[in-house]
Amino acid sequence: MKPGFDLLIRGGEVVNGDARAALDVGVAGGRIAALLAPGSSAAAEREIDATGLLVMPGGVDTHTHVAWPYDDTVTVDDWHSATRAAVLGGTTTIMDFVPPAEGGLAARCRARVEEAAADAVIDFGFHPILTASDTRDVEDIGKVIAEGFTSFKMYTTYEDRRVDDGAAWTLMRAIAANGGLPGFHAENHEILTSALDDQVRSGHLGLADYPHSRPGLAEAETIHMVSMYARRLNTPVYIFHVSGSDALDAVRFARRAGTVVHAETCTHYLAHDESVFTGEDAWRFVISPPIRGAADRLDLWSGIADGTVVSVGSDHCAYDTSAKRGWEHDHRHIPAGAPGIEARTPVLWNEAVNVRGLDPCQFVQVSAERAARALGLFPRKGRVAVGADADLVLWDPARAWTGADLRPVSPATFSLYERSSGTGLARHVVAGGRLVVEDGEFAGEKGAGRFLARAPMARP
Known about the structure:
Elements: E1 5-10, E2 13-15, E3 20-22, E4 24-28, E5 31-36, E6 44-49, E7 54-57, E8 59-61, E9 69-70, E10 73-74, H1 79-89, E11 91-98, H2 105-117, E12 123-130, H3 139-146, E13 153-155, H4 165-177, E14 183-185, H5 189-202, H6 216-233, E15 237-239, H7 245-256, E16 261-266, H8 267-271, H9 294-306, E17 309-313, H10 321-324, H11 344-355, H12 360-374, E18 392-402, E19 421-431, E20 434-438, E21 441-442
Helix pairs in contact: 3-4, 4-6, 6-7
């Protein structure tokens, strides 16, 4: 007779965003089938001993750029190497982007799914990027929302893709009307242009000057604008990579006024401050928006603790090291971005629990649950519960690591965490009911990941 479960995880402590308890977890058909009292007589085809481990929902990385096009080439990762690195770190769901390109929006979205589905080892979804050209075919927005692409990204800077105020309003209106979630890379283009012009005139273009080329005021101004639009449209809005106090203050202001603002920050803003720009390897840390001061970093942690920050993404973008180096005298030539898909969960755990004293439930909230709720993935993702996808990380809170243990997606790229160390790593990871990391080693299958088509969001 076939056992009742495909997989039974025994002896661990289940941690959700609101509670933790000693429970065994039964998995069948790729989903969590039962939460059982410890020591139950249930049988399974395979059992995992989780004694001393925390059994948590797999991480949800809200912000990755896998195989990303730039300067007539692409980053040095692919869908297999990137998702392999993600799951080794404890992430079981990633949200990537559909880049702007020639052709219709729906065709671009479908092509990106096909590209990922061939190689991804974990589940994935997409935020299509909209530009001013998409205002000519706004009916396509409703079509792709119906196909499961429900969250979007718009840039308010970068000449080749930015939307002005009118385009932002037009696109937000179409997204809201069809049950989608508008999102923004929020930096005021004119403020950035003025700040950079000042640096050019004064000759202050070194890496130590980089943070001042993109002041926090630019983030705050745009967050105020798009939040006002969102309030008028009765829609939530998602703000990607909030970097510090100015942006966070704008988010708090909008929330007090009644706007639902989902603020995302990123691992590097929580683990570093602007002192990184004084080191010999400052080129690594050129990221947009910039890593800011120590006080900004503390404020972001306050935002995590009080719920203002709903998610932490990696903003993974695995540039070839050679593309980043050699421009120490002029930061304008360095592409903004860095890899980090593999480091997100260990670094976040160490900084949140070991350094800041957050409890494991709060870690689950910010590493998985709040993101799943904001992006329409909950309760399928983000919770250890009957009926949820069996995406589980069996976490060893006592296992020590150094930067060398956080394996990058390619030897051709670099890490922001080479000098970091901490405790807390994934020992085993289950994705879709399959054991994909066993004793810290990859055991997954290329192409096993699924596209997460999400339903349109209900409006209040």
